[in-house]
Design brief:
Elements lengths: L2 H23 L9 E3 L7 E6 L4 E4 L3 H15 L1 H12 L2 H5 L4 H10 L1 H10 L3 H18 L2 H4 L2 H5 L11 H11 L16 H15 L8 E7 L2 E12 L9 E7 L2 E9 L4 E7 L2 E5 L6 E6 L6 E7 L7 E8 L2 E3 L7 E6 L9 H7 L20 E4 L5 E4 L4 E4 L3 E5 L4 H14 L4 H4 L6 H10 L11 H11 L11 H16 L12 H20 L8 H4 L2 E3 L15 H4 L6 E3 L26 E7 L5 E4 L10 H4 L8 E2 L5 E8 L4
Parallel strand pairs: 1-24, 3-6
Antiparallel strand pairs: 2-3, 2-24, 4-5, 4-18, 5-21, 6-7, 7-8, 8-9, 9-15, 10-14, 11-12, 12-13, 13-14, 15-16, 17-18, 19-20, 21-22, 22-23
Length: 656
């Protein structure tokens, strides 16, 4: 064979290999359909799919826009919708096996589905039509081959079922519940039933991997005397889920101003957005309390629901209501603990969300109230003036900034914001990525001097003290001082019983600080070894994210080990930031009950006509070499309005 022929064959193989590699690295090549007929659509509606995973919708009417939104959620979030719906309806054991019966029982007791049906029946005609329009678009996507041939559905041999309009109200309740932190008096008796209730609730939240909503914050800032560039920023903490949750959309209609918003799958919920020069963000907190009451058995109302697991017999769930509250424990002897939560009534926030996004039918009427969530957040009007919404526990006003939140760390984040606002022009991309902590910077100089007189320290302790003394109070991935400080403060808090502050007056403070520092070094040595150079913040605060269902293989009947240990294995990224920094992050002093919550969505809007810019991690497990190609750096900002449209789909009324 001639040399020329060899070279030709080699070149051909290289070309074919390059084409295959390009196809593999570029992900799925099947574009969305060019056209999709949908019954009862008023007129042609166009969806633009951008190369930044955002979406544009061109619709002639609000109901058509909601149909398109449902279609987008069905195409982009089908598996998330499936898991969330089964959770809200209490049918997980039917879909995934008997191990999830306890989660179903808890969901039935909370009444997500029961009260959603009742709320739907009480909706006005116009609002119900909008919810029906959303469901039409969602069902069109769920029935498509493109969705049904995706890997999770094929693996579990499941076909998405029809989406009823009231299902969206059940999912809205589920979202609201994940924003609660049920509280109760510490004097509850061991046989009160609260321990069982909390264990069931913990199991539900771990299944979804949605927690940590209390760490969400919103802030606004502007240059003094110049409100035209006022920035509104939102950080929505979404737990430890690796599945994408928030979907950014731009909706344009000829009869209304453009609307750009962050939407949640399964319902028309818009926690952050802009329209008509007005910008808003809500923290999605819902209030729930556990209280003891005297039981009047004649006034109690009882209902029963059946759970039908995939294998085994049906199970009966008894739910007993006392007024607007539900019993969570046994009656002993004439009293019981009950849960009070707005979701236990036939109410919905849907009219408020539609009014907020200018998609309702009440153009001149005042926006209705929130019922499920507290409506805490910020709003900025067309002049750049901000106003607090609801009554968030933390409201920190600076000379040119304001921050609202629910966590005790929010006040320290506000300190960072005020320092940034004094440093120069408003720069949300840089500020929101700040890993600097004013809390640590203020506390460190008051504590470190007590370490000078450590008795006969070993080389590891000396090195740890040296790194701590030279630490700049920045929780960047390579920081060693951050690890030492975090572990020391964790031990010191256990010693004094509270979070330390720069003005603490502690009895025998010096000896206590030295003792807890040695304990912290011993703890870190056991965990990471004696080489202090390995004590990096990216290891101590590792960001582990989980794929729901695949991460709960002990509860799922089908064997998911082949994928849960490879493609859908937990996603590990280097940790950075802290609960006291504007970038957010974990805290070892008072960690979240369900562990770190590294999944969050950041978005900001600058000026009354400025677009929405977002920063969020996007990971597609089905993409070839996805883990190898995933950057270890912080995701770059993405402009929602300026993202180039890659493909379009025309939703059209069916031909007569």
């Amino acid at each position: 064979m001639s040399r020329r022929l060899y070279l030709g064959l080699a070149g051909g193989l290289i070309a074919v290999g390059g084409a295959v590699l390009w196809w593999a690295l570029s992900g799925p090549v099947s574009p969305p359909p060019a056209a999709h007929p949908i019954a009862d659509l008023r007129d042609t509606t166009t969806i633009g799919w951008t190369d930044r995973h955002t979406v544009t919708i061109e619709a002639p009417h609000a109901t058509d826009a909601l149909t398109a939104l449902g279609y987008v959620h069905g195409m982009k979030r089908a598996w998330t919708l499936t898991v969330w719906r089964h959770t809200a309806l209490g049918t997980l054991s039917t879909a995934f096996g008997d191990g999830l019966v306890p989660v179903d029982r808890h969901a039935r007791r909370l009444g997500f589905a029961h009260h959603a049906r009742r709320a739907y029946e009480r909706l006005g005609t116009a609002t119900r039509e909008r919810l029906q329009a959303y469901a039409r678009g969602l069902n069109a996507a769920l029935r498509s081959t493109r969705v049904q041939q995706r890997e999770p559905f094929l693996h579990f041999d499941r076909v998405p079922k029809r989406w009823a309009p009231w299902h969206s109200l059940a999912l809205a309740r589920l979202v609201a519940w994940t924003g609660t932190a049920p509280t109760a008096a510490p004097t509850a008796a061991p046989d009160s039933g609260l321990a069982d209730f909390r264990a069931a609730d913990r199991r539900l939240r771990r299944w979804l991997r949605l927690h940590g909503r209390s760490r969400s914050v919103a802030w606004a800032a502007g240059a003094p005397g110049d409100t035209t560039r006022t920035v509104l920023f939102a950080k929505h903490v979404l737990g430890a889920t690796a599945d994408p949750v928030v979907q950014e959309v731009v909706i344009r209609r000829p009869d209304a101003a453009p609307m750009v918003a962050a939407s949640l799958p399964g319902a028309p919920l818009f926690p952050t957005g802009r329209t008509n020069g007005r910008r808003w963000t809500y923290l999605l907190h819902s209030d729930a309390t556990l209280v003891p009451i005297e039981v009047d058995s004649t006034a109690a109302r009882t209902r029963h629901e059946r759970i039908a697991p995939a294998r085994g017999g049906e199970q009966l769930v008894e739910i007993q209501r006392h007024g607007a509250r539900v019993r969570v424990g046994p009656i002993s002897p004439d009293s019981a603990w009950v849960l009070a939560w707005p979701g236990l009534r036939a109410r919905t926030d849907l009219p408020r969300w539609l009014a907020t996004a200018n998609l309702d039918a009440r153009h001149d009427a005042a926006a209705p109230d929130f019922h499920l969530v507290e409506g805490e957040g910020l709003q900025v009007d067309s002049t750049g003036a901000w106003s607090v919404q609801g009554q968030p526990p933390v409201v920190d006003r600076g000379p040119a900034s304001i921050l609202v939140g629910r966590s005790g760390w929010a006040a320290h984040q506000a300190d960072v914001l005020r320092a940034q606002a004094r440093s120069g022009p408003v720069a949300p991309a840089q500020w929101s990525a700040s890993d600097s902590s004013t809390w640590a910077a203020a506390l460190l100089p008051t504590l470190v001097p007590d370490l000078t007189s450590l008795n006969a320290p070993d080389s590891t302790t000396i090195d740890a003290r040296s790194y701590l003394r030279n630490w700049d109070a920045v929780y960047d991935p390579a920081s060693i001082g951050a690890v030492v400080f975090a572990e020391w403060m964790r031990a010191y808090r256990r010693e004094i019983g509270r979070r330390p502050t720069p003005t603490d007056s502690v009895f025998f403070a010096g000896p206590r600080r030295r003792r807890t520092f040695r304990a912290a070094v011993d703890s870190l040595t056991r965990r990471y070894g004696t080489d202090v150079r390995q004590w990096r913040w990216e290891r101590a605060a590792s960001e582990r994210r989980f794929f729901p269902v695949w991460a709960a293989d002990s509860l799922v009947a089908e064997d998911v080990s082949a994928l849960s240990s490879t493609r859908f294995a937990p996603l590990d990224r280097p940790g950075r930031g802290h609960a006291s920094t504007l970038s957010g992050g974990p805290s070892r002093i008072n960690p979240l009950p369900l562990g770190p919550a590294p999944t969050h969505w950041d978005g900001w809007m600058q000026g009354p006509r400025g677009g929405l810019t977002v920063r969020r991690l996007r990971f597609e497990p089905s993409r070839f070499f996805a883990r190898s190609l995933l950057s270890r750096d912080r995701p770059p900002p993405v402009s929602v309005q300026r993202a180039p449209v890659k493909n379009t789909t025309r939703l059209v009324p069916p031909s007569p």
